[in-house]
Design goal:
Its EC number is 1.14.11.53. By secondary structure, this protein is an alpha+beta fold. It is built from 14 helices and 18 strands. It is elongated and about 90 Å long. About 15% of the residues have low confidence.
Amino acid sequence: MKPRQRKQYFRNMKRSDDSEREKRRKRRRLIQELGEQRIPYLSPADPGFQELWDSSYAGLALRQSCALPDGLHERVQSALITLQRRGCLLRDLVRIRDRDVFTAVSRALVGKPGYTYRYLDTRLFTIPWHCEGEERQKDEKDKPCCDSDLRDACKALWELNQFFCSDVKQQTNARGVKRSRSDTENSEDTPGEGMCEESVKDRLLEKKQKQEKEEEEEEEEDSGQGCSHSSPPSSAPPPDVAGLVEFNVTLINYMDPTAMTQLKEEPYYGMGKMAVGWHHDENLVPLSPVAVYSYSCPAEPKKEEVTEKDGEGQSKEKEKQKETETEGEGTSKEEPKKEEGEGSEKEEVQKEKACWRVGLKVAWDIHTPGLALPLQSGDCYYMTDDLNRTHQHCVLAGDTARFSSTHRVVQCCTGTLDYIQKRCSEALENLHTDPEKTTKSLKSLLPNTLQHIEDIHNEVEFEWLRQYWFQGRRYARFCSWWTKPMEQMEKDWKEMERMTQLLLDVVEDENTVQENRREMADILLNALTDRQQHRQTWRDSQRHRHLTFLLDCLQGD
């Protein structure tokens, strides 16, 4: 980690408060500008819904439940219920505006072995999905890290992930061909007609939004990132990134509106109760797609016995009821047009609000109407192109409990076990052990080397060890994959603590003549100051940590 990156890295917590205040100011300005009015939003029953989708939300794709292969629904829904009944879905304690807050949603991360996902200053550790040919799914005793039921559940989610990898690529390619044909046709028309005009408007709008958010994005680029932040990263990958990447994790969410007593009303459009507020999905490879599987279950599976077949049967019944209303991807409903009168319209609105919906809006825009897309059980939707960067989305609560499996391409350059193990090895290379005296000393006292080691020391303690021992180890009771690696990492950290003490001894030794002694002292002072501040932050949250452990124990009973 370079010195400039190190300073940004350790200033994140200090700067996050300013960033949150800026976002609150933007929200207040929007609400003040709106007054008592509401921005219009469209649902499938509304005229112009499809046109709005095509012009302003083209990166969104809906895949109805019938698009999935036979048998996959049953396996995936059974897997989700297994995770819930086994107590794998847990509420996280996250940090928002310098406060420790429980998430309303229960979550678990499933994905490639050794991967993590960081959001709102919280790191989630994967339960490995047991895919075919994948190694490293056993513990130190060469035993499976999970029991057979959990392995089957994770494998089913991997099968869904494989389907998404293939289907998203096909949908993206098909949409690209369609756009190419449309561009060719429009190029023969006069400028400003059809989709060309909309594309120009979109580009101008995107440029304006990018300028507005440039300062805010710089503030949050290296901050604790996650699915509840409201500003996306600004870096841009190659335009064909969607065809090059594959989903490496899925974040499993469970939401029960009857247990979520403090659901807030959607403030801008009047869409209804929000289970998850407006946000961009964070800490992802820029411009990478997101695929979401939605499963609405009739009751709380942990408290009431609901078989997978029963759940799927009710899902199919609901799907049949909607078949005449919805055709293809995002087509407008035709049935309400035939039934005139306020009664049928109100009934249609009530039906839509009874099911779970995903809401979308152009970020920080009060002129473009929002979009509310109802989700039947088993439906999937994709966010492709730059939709996650230029738009925000929310989850609008329905009447029943809901699972979602949100498949992502997370940033893995600094978030994998392989990465942090290599960092530990780099630091420990500077520690020399005398085989005869069994004493230890530092090989190099060069300032750059010492700075590099102290950076790794802080990263290991605050980005990995404390994150794991705080919340990550909750999963050890049903998956042992991370136990041994984290124990070894703690041993490495203790060696780094000894290296810091050795450096302190050198600096304090008046008999030691070192030209860079003052510089070594500055490096040590800065490192210890940062470390002390971070440790104090963790101590201040100790009471909430006890509460979350108690809550998890109650959930596991």
